[in-house]
Every structure is written in structure tokens, then in C-alpha cells.
């Protein structure tokens, strides 16, 4: 098992190097550069070029890439010209909000998806299954950003049940019980919006697993031996069908972090997604490269977690 984990971690190294190169080159293709937002645009061309030369923006790409990677390894992403603070300080605050939002979305997703998937799979082709399948089809066809807009309009503005911006009520003392409740209140609607869309894939996958497992020989044998239906489902079918769902935990988490880009912007939730889009609009070069790198890192770590869980569930994966 440890050999598999070490091998899988080693595979991450070239992935991270390739990711950093792609981000560096894509960022260099953006209009302007890190210097553009730090200088007075009314300066004459010679002064700007002199400054660019002093700061190394005219150096060959490999030298610029080496300096950037060296800073990233040491946790130095540069300075945000918009917020006038270190990018690392800015990211640590926003990353916490995004992680809590993604975790709450994941919990809601599984709380909804697992019961619906079990009911749909056990009673397939009946009325309950048709109703749940219809819900999943609607979910597949609904873009997340449109659904989030409807949610914020109906529950936020029309019913006024949830706040429509921010991550906590202003003036609440950090660490107090009221602060925690306010945090949850602000996260609940965006988390629910992401979860109701993310649920549909898990429901369909679990339904297919249960229907497929019901046809397996060991289930037919259990029925032939006179085992009760509740025992067959609880001891054999559900246990086997739920294991692959657990293996996709990492992918689900990475997907929700990526999906937070639109939801955080719609709900004005101060997380990584909102910061990313704002930084693109303002050409905040240092913040854009840092957020894209962290989103990519989250995807790679999610893949690693899923592979490790999958290897625990199915030992044949380790052999391969």
C-alpha cells in the first residue's frame, strides 16, 4: 500500500511542473504583465521600459519562470497591486472561505444523493425512480450559474431567508457562537445551490451501481438461499454499490472547489472563485497566476485522494 502511495505521489511531481509551465505561459499571453498594474500609466515610454528592464521583465522566459517558481516554492506569490497586500496573505483568507463552502457543499451533496440513489436503484422503473430520474435530467440540463441566480433571487431577495452577500454578518465577534451561526447562514444557500446540481451525477451513478449489482450471481444465490430482501440490500447490494462512491470523494471535492468560481461571484461570497474573476478583470497578474495554480493543485490532490481510496476499496488497482 505504501509503495502505491509513494509511486502515486512521485507521479504528481511532473504533473505539477507541467501545470506551472502552462500557467506561466498562459499568464504571459494576457494583456499587460505584473508591472502594468504597479506603474502610473501617464509615465513616458522610456521610463516604463527602464523600470521593466530593472525588474527583469525583459529577461528570457526561462529566467523569469525560474524566479517565479523559486518564489512559489517559498510561498511568495508576489504583491497584489489591487489589494496592496502580499498575495499569500490574501489567498490564506479567501482559501479558508472556499474550503468551508466546498466542504459544506460536499456534505449536502452526499446527504441528498445517497438516499435518492438508493431509492432510485432499489425501486427502478417505478414511480419514485421516474420522479428521481426526472430530477436528475433537469439537473444535468441546468447550468450551475443560472440555477444559482434563481436561488439567490427566490430565497435571497424574494423570501429574504438568506443573506445575498458576504461570508459573515458585519460586527460579529470572531470565534463566538453567533459568528459560527452567521458563517453557516451565509454559506448555506451557495452550498445548497452547488450541491443540488452536483447531486445528479452521484444519484445516477449510484442508481446504475445498485441495478447492476442486483443482477450479480452472488445476489441471485443469496435469494435462492432464502435471505430476506432487507438483508440482501443492507449486507450485499448497498455495501458494494457505495464503495465506488466513496472512491470519488477527492474528485467531488476538487470539482466543487472549481465550481465555486461562478457561485461565489453570484453570491458575492469572498472566496477564491470571486477573487479569481475579479483579478482577471483588473489584470491583477500575480493573483491570477496564484489562484489558477491553487485550483490546479486542488484538482491534482483530489485525484490523489480518489486513487488512494480506490486502491483501499479495490486492491487490484495497486497491482496495476
Automatic annotation (TrEMBL):
TM segment ranges: 99-119, 131-155, 187-206, 241-267, 287-313
KW Membrane (keyword) present: yes
Gene3D superfamilies xref list: MetI-like
UniProt-listed InterPro entries: BPD_transp_1_N, MetI-like, MetI-like_sf
Family under the similarity heading: Belongs to the binding-protein-dependent transport system permease family.
Keyword Nucleus appears in the UniProt entry: no
Swiss-Prot/TrEMBL GO biological process terms: transmembrane transport
Alphabetical UniProt keywords: Cell membrane, Membrane, Transmembrane, Transmembrane helix, Transport
Occurrences of domain ABC transmembrane type-1 (ranges): 95-306
Species whose genome carries this gene: Sporosarcina pasteurii (Bacillus pasteurii)
Gene from which this protein is expressed: gsiC_4
Protein name, entry field: Glutathione transport system permease protein gsiC
Recorded topology in the membrane: Multi-pass membrane protein
Gene Ontology cellular-component terms listed: plasma membrane
Subcellular location: Cell membrane
Amino acid at each position: 500500500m505504501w509503495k502505491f502511495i509513494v509511486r502515486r505521489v512521485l507521479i504528481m511531481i511532473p504533473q505539477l511542473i507541467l501545470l506551472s509551465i502552462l500557467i506561466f505561459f498562459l499568464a504571459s499571453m494576457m494583456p499587460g504583465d505584473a508591472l502594468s498594474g504597479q506603474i502610473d500609466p501617464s509615465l513616458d515610454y522610456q521610463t516604463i521600459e527602464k523600470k521593466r528592464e530593472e525588474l527583469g521583465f525583459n529577461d528570457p522566459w526561462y529566467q523569469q519562470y525560474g524566479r517565479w517558481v523559486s518564489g512559489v516554492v517559498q510561498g511568495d506569490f508576489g504583491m497584489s497591486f489591487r489589494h496592496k497586500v502580499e498575495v499569500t496573505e490574501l489567498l490564506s483568507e479567501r482559501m479558508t472561505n472556499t474550503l468551508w463552502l466546498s466542504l459544506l457543499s460536499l456534505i449536502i451533496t452526499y446527504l441528498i444523493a445517497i438516499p435518492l440513489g438508493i431509492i432510485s436503484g432499489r425501486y427502478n422503473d417505478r414511480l419514485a425512480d421516474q420522479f428521481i430520474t426526472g430530477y436528475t435530467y433537469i439537473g444535468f440540463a441546468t447550468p450551475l450559474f443560472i440555477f444559482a441566480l434563481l436561488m439567490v433571487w427566490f430565497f435571497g431577495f424574494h423570501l429574504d431567508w438568506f443573506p445575498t452577500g458576504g461570508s459573515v454578518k458585519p460586527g460579529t465577534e470572531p470565534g463566538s457562537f453567533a459568528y459560527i451561526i452567521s458563517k453557516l447562514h451565509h454559506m448555506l444557500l451557495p452550498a445548497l445551490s452547488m450541491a443540488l446540481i452536483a447531486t445528479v451525477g452521484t444519484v445516477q451513478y449510484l442508481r446504475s451501481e445498485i441495478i447492476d449489482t442486483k443482477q450479480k450471481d452472488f445476489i441471485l444465490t443469496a435469494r435462492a438461499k432464502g435471505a430476506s430482501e432487507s438483508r440482501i440490500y443492507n449486507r450485499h447490494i448497498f455495501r458494494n454499490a457505495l464503495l465506488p462512491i466513496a472512491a470519488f470523494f477527492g474528485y467531488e471535492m476538487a470539482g466543487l472547489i472549481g465550481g465555486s468560481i461562478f457561485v461565489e461571484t453570484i453570491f458575492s461570497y469572498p472566496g477564491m472563485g470571486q477573487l479569481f474573476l475579479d483579478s482577471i478583470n483588473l489584470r491583477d497578474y500575480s493573483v491570477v497566476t496564484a489562484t489558477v495554480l491553487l485550483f490546479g493543485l486542488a484538482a491534482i490532490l483530489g485525484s490523489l485522494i480518489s486513487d488512494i481510496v480506490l486502491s483501499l476499496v479495490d486492491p487490484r488497482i495497486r497491482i496495476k
